[in-house]
## 1
Amino acid sequence: MNETPAIRTENLSVTYTGNEDVEAVKGVDITFPENQLTAIIGPSGCGKSTLLKSLNRLHEIQPNVEIEGDVLLGDASIYDTDDPAPEIRRRIGYVPQTPTPLPLSIYENVAYGVRLHGEYESSEELDGIVETYLKKVNLWDEVHDRLDTPAASLSTGQIQRLCLARSLAVEPEVLLCDEVTSALDPISAERVEETLVDLKDEYTFIMVTHSMNQARRLADDVVFLYLGEVVERGDVRSFFEDPTHERTKQFIGGHGAGADTGDGDDDPDDGAEKSPYGSADQRSSTPAK
Amino acid sequence: MDRYAKQRAFGVLARAAAGLVVFVMAVVIGVTIFRGGRVLLADPSIVISPPGSRYALEGTGGFFHAVLGSALIVGPATVVSMVLALSTATYLQSDYSSERFSDAVNMFLNVLWATPPIVYGVFVLTIVIAVGARTSLFFGIIAISVFQYPIMTRYIDEALRSAPDTVRESTYGLGATRFETAKMTARAALPGIVAGIIMGFARGIGDAATVLFTAGRSTNMPNGLFEPATTLPVLIFDNSMSFNEEVRAHAYAASFVLIVVVLGLIVVSRLLAGRFAQYVPGGRHA
């Protein structure tokens, strides 16, 4: 871990202040190195997604959340700054767990963020940007002849790669991915993983996952979060082969700690459960005509 | 009674209730179309002819003044309340308002929705009197938009609420502002929004009580924004009380026109909603 930190947290706490106060993230210090993929693993409800969203102030869109401590992008705080939150989120992108097409065409999905930030001079340049990023996520060959069709007509796996392209097109310094394969069937999940492997040397990824095997396959670094606290972190090899903490050993071993024991596959069952579209996924997982 | 007998009994009851509703609807629409259609077939020109000088008494000429009055009152009123309803509904989403505030406003809107339209009519009439004006097209527009506003707002609010939350999250995640995200959420909710606006329009064009006191019940062509006018529902109300058979026949013809317009609008709203739904995650595919 002697790489330059792209982003790090300083004693970061996140508290939900609804009916009663719940501290979801408790004083966390983590460094995320540049151009690496860091996986945050842990059982459901342990604060993984909350931590992820507090890294680009996305938690601010929901009511009753309070934050303490700080997050630094490079050397600058993302909280104690004059930049409005959208500027922060442009530099630290976010891909949600559910593959979500914006209600636009395939082309406009990728172009949307670029248009927001006005990062192009001509429509030819925009065409070029869209093509570049669709190629980056290995989607260009599948969609180049139907860029004008609604993005919602793609399969869920294709939509998730489209979401990646859409987020990358804004050229963020860090990309946060929240269980990006958990709503996908195993084959689509594999395609998305391949894409992430292709990209991870160029970008700083922070990925939440509950699949141990996925972390093992993709991550350079692993952070194990349990009940809002960092139990252990390390590079992927030492984390899985030589964990220091008893809790980590139990979690990797698949017992205790309320672990999702889904070791050995990509937890397609868990994914199906979480998908708000239920069986519709099955229908749309074959590419539309 | 054993469980299966209960089930069969309930089945019979449910089918009977549904059958009754369909029967009543068929009679209402059937009688209107039959009687109105007969009048229109005999002389279709009454829809586009202005009323004669003795229209109220003898039904000379046609009821184009009411057709035009409906269009000129309900069209602008729908635009006004659409703008207000879209803004209000957007403001009621969690990006702008706390849950308690939007719950309170929604309760208030439900009360407004349940308010009898005649109350709106009288309310606007008091304004007309207070400012010393006379009943006119303009106050008809105001009364109808006040009437449509809670209906549209509730529909649009529901549509925005049911738009997938991940669309909001994704849009913010790309660095969009609150306003840009609100626009995207509205796009995702477009089928529901269109349905809400068309429902508001349909309710507005069919309502008599709100314009009864406010637009002026004129039997002449509408002459200007601050001149008296009438609408189809008011015309139906007035004509159906006439002693003259010809005048009463016009009421049926006008009912026919209204029902066709409303049914047409529902078809259009279905078509539009289907078209926009292609773009919505989980929506109908092309």
## 2
Amino acid sequence: MKKVIIIGFLGVIAYYLLSAFASIPFGADLIKGVKDFYLDKSPNDLKVANVVTSIVVNFRGFDTLGEVTVLFLASTALGSILYRRRSHDSGLNPQRTAPEASALVQTGAKVIFPFTIMLGAYVFIHGHLTPGGGFQGGAIIATGFLLMLVSYRKFFIEHNALTWIEAIAGSTFVILGLLGLVYANNHNFLENFLPAGKLNDLLSGGIIGIIYVAVGFKVGAEITGILDTLLTVKETGLDPEEN
Amino acid sequence: MTHTEIILTVISLVVLIVAGFYAVMQKDLIHAVIATSVISLVLSLVFYLLQAPDVALTEAAIGIALSTIIFIITVRNTKRFEDK
């Protein structure tokens, strides 16, 4: 009975998906729409080489602010569920649940870690020139910290520093938006008010560079905080050696 | 797309489906998690071949590394084998 219901439900979903996809002219030459406006305006007026970034930050900047907020809320919720007690407040010794990694993993992690951070920083600093951006760069940085977290049992993240990074990066985003309200030509929230510069220069695209550096720091700090919270036991009773 | 790219995309999609079935059928949850990370790896290749490098970067960083490790932490803190 349960399987019949599930199959029927999947059939309904498949029917609606199929009818939606059938209306899209696959293989047609050009789909008319707003894309021509984006493709024309991004390199010519806004001087952003990466059109995807230009859409995400310039035309859909408010959505990006919403995404950053969603990630912040997810990280806060996870922290409030899993975070037990601050180690230096209570004098408790934070414990990593994982066993000690082998010497091979530890040495490899030590070698790869700085380059991972550098790659992440490159991706978000060059967000308006090459593929990638704040979210991708932040995720790559968090991957580097993850490598160190699983390799070394004594590698702990300072949560106060993460809090400050998140606060400063988030406020930078909102303050840039509010400055757009005052100084930009059309007085819109998150509108570009800095000079656009020359196409393909590092200092081009106005506020995109600054916003993506802020988003990169924020996403990196949030995901690193989530991973550290998940991997660390902050209670005295849970000693991994005993389990 | 050139012929090589089309062939690569088709092979990747086949691997993707096989890995997806393996992830669903497998009773050992760690193996299933690794299969989902293989899906992410192949999917990021497909995104790259379909000329969406931004999405490919996101899928590579989030799908392969971060979500896999979160699943592994969860499996290790709960049960490794799926019940009947």
## 3
Amino acid sequence: MFNLVLAIARNTFREAVRDRVLYNLVLFVMLLTGAAIFIGELSGGQERKIIVDLGLSAMLLFGVFIAIFVGVGLVYKEIERRTIYAIFSKPVGRGEFLVGKYLGLCLTLLVNVLVMGLGVCLALLYVNRGWDPLIISIWPSILLIYFELTIVTAVALLFSSFSSPALSALLTFLIFIIGHFSADLKNLSTLAPSAATRWLLAALYYILPNLANYSFIAGAAHGHSPDPTRLLAATVFAAVFVTVLLASATLVFSRRNFK
Amino acid sequence: MADVPKRKTTSLLLVTVAGLITAASLTHWLDTHTSAPDPTLQEQELYLSAGAARRMSLGFNALVADWYWMRSLQYVGRKILNAREHLELDDLGKLNLKLLAPMLDTATALDPEFIEAYEYAAIVLPPIDVNEAIRITRKGIDANPNAWRLYHQLGYIYWQQRDYATAARIYEQGAAISGAPEWMKAMKARMAVEGGSPATAREIYIRLYEQSGDQKIRDMAWRRLLQLDSAKEIENINKVLNAFRSRTGRCINSWTEIAPAFRAAGLGMDATGAPLDPTNMPYRLLVERCSVELAPQSEIPKH
């Protein structure tokens, strides 16, 4: 079973590479190179901070776009091309198929994030004219960005298991936005006048992922690393939440009729 | 037949290039034929409050903070350029920089650890809005209780307001932070005893020069130190000039008449014997008052 999942994941990764998904790295490199060369004129001595902020924010933004736009097409493309029939004619379960697809895209995102992380380190070396402690301290923050992307990918996959790509992309993007507004949901849940609204908002707060927990870009730019307990909790949360989403996606996808 | 695709490619390329040139020309024409923007509109309040900007930035708050920071620098820089005179960073009160406080407030709300933005607020804002300067610096202290540098900045604001007692208290609080340098303690004592003295001013500017990461603030502190040096030199030169006038009943006709006294006082002089300020620019003699002042071309701040 595990070999089947790995085979699908490998194939999904290859397909993403063939689809030139990693071409965004070229844009990223151009952005960072431009920033490293020109930002000194505009930043009032804050080149290192701005390189880290810009690099990690671009990593998150490009990653979210890949997670959403590639993620929503993972299942849909197979149905559209009718290759899904060939896949399911083999001893491949629907859950294995989804998990394989998910892991393949996560591998693509991992390569993307690693290369971008190295790009930020090189830009820091250039701006600082030598070694910079930020080169080490930004990696825990990059790990958190990666975990956020794995959650967004799982959300995209869940929506794409029962909806059209356009609607799935929209819904996933909304979840990304709401995920960053979680603190407001919690505040509102305590301030709302009616008990039903309070209960609904509190339920939403606990059901939806609090993506603000994965934002540590500002801290990373000041040379801080997230507290290990927070990092561990965020990792466990991502693992649990992704498992829930993949299980739900499998549940929905298992009931889909392709005839 | 083989020429057709080539001709087609050439035509498409020509259309693309010609289109881009036309678009650029039109943009230029529009720029030159549009009336200048209303300055009152440019000075309108920011669309977003600091809190709203923080919420709406999603996970990109650090990047948006950088954008507000750079916008603040551009805003101040543009106003200084338009003023067409040399102004010190700590003396921009007449430039109507009313958007600076909200922009720095937003930058620091988006990135509460942005020490340089608080520092900039502490240096630039006091002549514009001292209450906002104090509020933003205190906000920085609340968000970064271990940043002793912010206590130095806050003490500097109170020192500028000649509130030496509060400044001394702030330096005392800053000195109590672990990792704070010894001079914070000394500054507290000096502030309490001789807050208004040139020696205290010198100490403040030396520390600003040493501690700031912003080259513009360092330059400002350096020029303020030169100003203190030149104030001392002007005092010495005026003493020599007064002594000459008491002795002869007139002011000097040429610098050479008192050159030995300048040499004895260790003052630098140019070929005509005129004493030089710390930037090697000759002081200007005011014969009617029989005193000297900084030459208009001197880079040293005049006030």
## 4
Amino acid sequence: MTDATFDAVPERSSSAPSYLEDGHTVASWLFTTDHKRIAILYAAGITFFFFIGGAAATLMRLELVTPYANFLSPDEYNRLFTLHGVIMVWFFLIPSIPAVMGNFLLPLMIGARDVAFPRLNLVSWYVYIFGGIVTLYSLVAGGVDTGWTFYTPFSTMFSNSHVLAAAAGIFIAGFSTIATGVNFITTVHTERTEGMTWFRLPLFVWAMYATSIVMVLATPVLAASLLMIVCERLFHLPIFNPDTGGDPLLFQHLFWFYSHPAVYIMILPAMGVVSEIIACFARRQIFGYRFMVYAMIAIAGIGFFVWGHHMFVAGSSNYANLVFSLLSFIVAVPSAIKVFNWTASLYRGRITFEAPMLYALGFVGLFTVGGLTGLFLAMIPIDVHVTDTYFVIAHFHYIMVGGSVSAFFGGLHYWWPKVTGRLYHEGFARFAAILMFFGFNFTFFPQFIMGYAGMPRRYEVYPPVFQIYHVMSSAGASVLAVAYLMPLFYLGWSLLHGERSPPNPWRATGLEWQTSSPPPKQNFLVPPRVAHGPYRYHAEQDPSDLAEIDSGR
Amino acid sequence: MNQLFLFPPAASLEAKGVDQLYFVMLGLSFAILALVFGLIVVFAWRYRAGSGARRSKLPGFYAHEMEIGWTLATLLVFLGIYGWSVEARQVHWAPPHGALNVRVVAKQWMWKFEHPSGAREIDALHLPLGVPVRLDMTSQDVIHSFYVPAFREKQDVLPDRIVTLWFTPSRLGQYAIRCAEYCGTNHSLMGGEVYVVTPAEYARWADRNADRSLPAAGARSFAALGCAGCHEARADLAPRLADLYGSKVALEGNRSVLADDAYLERSILDPRADIVKGYLPIMPSYRGVATPEEVSALVAYLKTMKSGRTP
């Protein structure tokens, strides 16, 4: 029996080789059903796609330094922003935290041996890679120029690009998302170890659970709408084409019915990661644990009813707009609560500022900016002016890059010793975290200003008055690019030559740290028994707090 | 550009309200950011590891009650903002009567405008100062979006229907029109200029560029005499007129007639002579209402009416 507190970590047992030592052949990786190895396979996939999507962004930012077309033709530019969106949304952001960290950590955090369906888990990865290859084919074959939003009738009747292949690739990858969602839901329901009650689950597990529900319910709608695009393009079925009685707005409803919840697929996991990190480095339990859980469930639920705020100027009725505006304000409440709770979790802590904590604090700040500007966009009069401008671009990058990607890097550093059994260079890591924060703001804050000044998105050629903001943005992007490349080097070095890590270098209390680092193939040599909540940090401060923590408040 | 371009000019009555909301939201956002960032910085400093700050058990109120308190406070603030934004948009609920009605056709990659006088322009739009303007817009191909940042107004333009946007220009000058919905290769080049001029100047311009052709005069009479009230708006009361010329029309009494010039003229002046099958004899005669010149212009216009998406 393992007692799940940080002071009871077992030493590395020589009798149990780690999951990394369990087979060194290529086949032992490609045919593994170990959730930890599958997580590594996913990590390789998303890293590859992250740098492809990043390269597209780099080319766009270079082109936008001047108001005129320089080295890209309009069609090339249009293909680049489509590529950037498609790859980053479906092949990086959506699988990033869930499929990599969720896969690795979910079973460890609930004391399970593996996910509920290990073989389905491996299939998910192959489906994801296959979808990625089909999408990459569409790019190599000449690209897609519809934007990641595939608006009809442009995508079905006017675009002379490889819409079919791109849609097929995303369609295929969607099944991987659904399978992962089903797997995680089942795992949380059936694989929790003895004593791991629902309200003793770490917030990361709750985040995965809420995300999985959204994945399972929303992704089929995306599949349906992509299938309709294929049917209209290929067989001329009259669905969106107004000439044959179709409705182009139907597509937007279907697309945003998926794509707004998809935003929560990208941000909820980040909220989970950040909750783990803040608790650990503030040495505090998360303030208002239950409210944090309810907030995530509320976001996942209400998130399904706000899609219309993407369509305030699309030709929707005034009444529908009023309802969607109201619901968009309401969905912002639980997000605000979470920000307050993270902040309050610092109160009376014993805070240290290692790289993961820097990323987590950066997340809170950037997510707050993204959330507040979301309120601007929920207001119909302001949205009418700034929708489809750089204001929107800045807003969703604050959420998805400032939020999700910061949290991803925070989690990457936090769990790096757990996954690899090695330590990285703390100085480089802190420097990269700070560089990323400033590079990000430098890149995207000017976009709020030029958005309100009237700079539309998806413009290669733009009025010269906006050049100063584009130059700032591109300069920031080059800082950001350096910051994103840095971990590749110091983490790569750590992987090969890094100092061996103790099992629990952060003295964290989560169950995933109560086994060796890296963990053995079966995760725990003895199935752990859980007797209290996940954030038992007050013990080192005031033991009288523990009763309260264990009651799950 | 020596100066930072922070805000586009506010050139419509609507723009001022939008800017007001925006500035208040900016103020509120900075206040919340200052609160959150301030607390993070203060806590990070005061409760850094090794500091001597007190860390005993939390006071009892500092949990549940606080949580409920700030949830409700946030909700109330949000609802307040929502209510205000709705109220601000209320004035924009329906187009005002007597607005200047300009028809807009978008196509890859240009904007075409047609004024009530028949004056047409491409990628340029002349509008009178202080007069409510109503744009009836449609697209010939993909979805575009009519966007004038100086007016703080934007509306997607769809291929299958006529969408309406209205506003009142409130400042003389020249302002950019942009396409805000991605529409293909030259999306970023699709735009133009709005010229807000004095009403007198607008009247002169509209007259100088008026379409003096017979069908155009007929189209104006068609609107002025209220023909569209039944023939376009009420298919149950009156037959549609598009593609009528040259077709064979089934009449009450099992007759039929070829829709030629004579038939069109007779139907305007003596509508009860031939009642289209399935309709009641309710159309009044326009003899003495429309001048002979107007009647021949109407006939000329009817001959050009074709079904299709062009308004």
